[in-house]
Write a structure and sequence with these properties.
This protein is of the alpha+beta class and 362 residues long. Helix content is 32%, strand content 22%. Helix 1 runs antiparallel to helix 2, helix 3 runs antiparallel to helix 7 and helix 5 crosses helix 6.
Length: 362
């Protein structure tokens, strides 16, 4: 398997020459983290077998959310928590995109633009859900920001997974969607979303070109069954960058080839480009530092646990009891027992003798 860190090492010089002037601090941080991942430069931890006493130094992972080799555990934890919130109702996957004419504005003002994108799309869903023609209550939804197309081009959009129903807390009333395979009219959703996003962008003194109004904005609303498959789809690249390393299939003569799947035909396609350009295609999707890619709203928000419990009672739904996964343990090469973590060494510091290290977590 071709590793992203190896490509960064191989093409670092031409990449810096071509794209250094465009790199943001968060992108440089991601590069450094990926290069250091699972090497002594990321720090080390000492583990010891409780049965036979064997100890080892193990390099730490970088923990960067753009590293394709990290945070599998965090992805599993998020997925299990979301599965525990699932209700016995139909679900929809609603995708909000913006016209191509706004992508330059989005790139130049990422933190502001992405925040406005979240606010406007969530507002549109709440507005239509609150309309008596549709649900007439408060909805719940989970949104995940993606900035890439399947071919890794810059294409900001938000996917929402939305249960087909809403709650009236005062009346303790759950209101179901009238048609289990229909949620909201997409034209109405698009109109509310566009008006709200333009208003929010202008409130931040961002200029929205007239070209943005030339065509309808595309909102895709698809029936998603029980919601579980849609959650797995959203979790796929939640914390591990925009491309899995198994999709990088060739690195020859300065050219890198990766595969992507067409949305309609589901057929695999290949795309080849110079190594430096490929690195840029991947790293341009690094979000601003600290920006939250995932957000819960309504009765799915973390502060609305009582409301979610009320809905579960109204629907006579037994909450799923999906246990949160434990972190995988290192296995002792001598006896096969799970080794316990005993201490850490920060990057650049010298290794302490075993006896001095083992007291750190005792």
């Amino acid at each position: 398997m071709i590793k992203l860190a190896d490509l960064l090492l191989q093409y670092k010089q031409p990449f810096e020459q071509a794209y250094a002037h465009r790199l943001l601090p968060s992108q440089r941080q991601a590069i450094n983290a990926i290069l250091a991942c699972r090497t002594p430069d990321a720090g080390e931890m000492i583990v010891q077998c409780p049965d036979c006493g064997r100890f080892e130094w193990r390099p730490k992972s970088c923990g960067n959310r753009n590293c394709p080799g990290c945070q599998n555990h965090e992805t599993s934890v998020w997925l299990n928590r979301q599965q525990n919130k699932l209700l016995p109702v139909p679900y929809f996957l609603v995708t909000f995109t913006v016209p191509a004419s706004l992508r330059k504005l989005a790139w130049r003002h990422q933190r502001v633009f992405f925040s406005c994108l979240f606010d406007a799309s969530a507002y549109a869903l709440r507005a239509l859900a609150g309309n008596e023609k549709f649900l007439g209550g408060t909805p719940g939804m989970t949104g995940v920001l993606h900035t890439n197309s399947r071919q890794l081009d810059f294409h900001p959009h938000i996917h929402y997974i939305v249960p087909a129903g809403a709650i009236e807390p005062e009346k303790r009333l759950w209101k179901r969607s009238k048609d289990h395979k229909y949620l909201f009219p997409q034209h109405a959703l698009s109109s509310v979303f566009r008006a709200k996003l333009v208003m929010l962008l202008r409130s931040h003194d961002l200029v929205v070109s007239e070209a943005a109004f030339s065509k309808d904005w595309i909102i895709d609303c698809e029936y998603a069954g029980s919601g579980a498959p849609a959650l797995k789809y959203l979790a796929r690249y939640l914390y591990r960058g925009v491309i899995a390393e198994k999709r990088i299939i060739s690195n020859k003569n300065g050219l890198v080839t990766f595969v992507w799947r067409e949305s309609k035909t589901k057929k695999l396609q290949r795309k080849t480009m110079p190594g430096a350009q490929f690195l840029w295609q991947v790293l341009q999707h690094t979000l601003p530092g600290g920006f939250r890619r995932v957000r819960d709203y309504g009765f799915l928000h973390g502060n609305s646990r009582r409301l979610l419990t009320l809905i579960q009672l109204l629907l006579r739904a037994r909450p799923a009891q999906v246990k949160l996964p434990e972190r995988p343990a290192f296995k002792c090469p001598d006896c096969g027992s799970a080794m316990a973590m005993k201490g850490f060494r920060s990057p650049g510091s010298s290794r302490s003798p075993p006896a001095a290290s083992l007291h750190l977590h005792n």
